[in-house]
Amino acid sequence: MNPLQEVIFCRQFGNQHRVPKPYYRRKTYLCYQLKLPEGTLIHKDCLRNKKKRHAEMCFIDKIKALTRDTSQRFEIICYITWSPCPFCAEELVAFVKDNPHLSLRIFASRLYVHWRWKYQQGLRHLHASGIPVAVMSLPEFEDCWRNFVDHQDRSFQPWPNLDQYSKSIKRRLGKILTPLNDLRNDFRNLKLE
Q1: What's the pLDDT score for residue 180?
Q2: Is residue 193 scored above 90 in pLDDT?
Q3: 56 is catalytic
Q4: pLDDT tens digit string along 11-23?
Q5: pLDDT at position 75, please?
Q6: I want to staple 136 with a disulfide (CB 3.0 to 4.6 A). Which of 29, 115, 131, 140 is the partner?
Q7: Which domains does the chain have, with CATH numbers?
Q8: Alpha-carbon distance 131 to 106, whole Å?
Q9: What is the pLDDT of residue 1?
Q10: What is the pLDDT of residues 154-187, one digit of tens each?
Q11: Are 54 and 27 in contact (CB under 8 A)?
């Protein structure tokens, strides 16, 4: 695995609402750890989008090749810069469903196009299918830094307002994952008559 450069990590995994100057394009990076249930690391890697192929699809291909032994259980932790798009969410759900010996957890730095219904549905589908999607906070950023960044033995230095941004994104994700029935009941409970 080629570790990420510090500047790439901070730019791409940064959870700020707006890109700080100098402006740059945010890309999708997916860093994962494949472990045995007792914690033994089998493999780790960092992937990114390739031409017309999302990082999640590259991830599925890699994991398929690494987990052919269906008698062995595997746990996978993913750190991703953007939450999966609806297509990738669907593919991840199908992949985990077809491979019950795998357990997948996703930590996203930011939510991708979270205001669009289709993207929200993708996140809900992951959640409903038993694939937890959570927002990265300081412990996840630190773990990602330790395991995937060429940090030259430097500790992770959080950018300003990292915690505040994480909490804001978590609230948004929580609202997306709240079942619509609960929202309807909450609306009825307002008794706006």
Answers
A1: 64
A2: no
A3: yes
A4: 999 998 877 676 7
A5: 97
A6: 140
A7: 6-189 (3.40.140.10)
A8: 7
A9: 78
A10: 999 999 999 999 999 999 999 999 876 555 556 6
A11: no
Catalytic residue from among 6, 38, 56, 193: 56
pLDDT of 121 higher than 60: yes
CA distances from 155 to 9, 147, 158 (A): 13, 12, 10
At residue 69, does pLDDT exceed 70?
Answer: yes
Interstrand relation of 29-35 and 41-48 (parallel, antiparallel or unpaired): antiparallel
Residue 86 has which token pair? 């609806």
CB count within 10 Å of CB 86 equals 18
Report the share of the chain in percent with pLDDT over 70: 91
Residue 85 assigned as binding residue: yes
Alpha helices by DSSP H, the chain: 6-13, 55-66, 86-98, 117-128, 138-148, 162-177, 180-189
State yes or no: 31 annotated in a binding site: no
Q: What is the pLDDT of residue 138?
A: 98
pTM: 0.89
User: Within 1-136, where are the H helices?
Assistant: 6-13, 55-66, 86-98, 117-128
Q: Find where tokens 């100098």 sit.
A: 22
Question: 52 is written with which tokens?
Answer: 């017309």
Residue 135 burial class via C-beta count within 10 angstroms: exposed 0-12, middle 13-18, buried 19 and up: buried
Q: Burial letters for 149-166: b for 16+ Cβ neighbours within 10 Å, e otherwise?
A: bebeeeebeeeeebeebb
Q: Which residue's structure tokens are 């700080």? A: 20
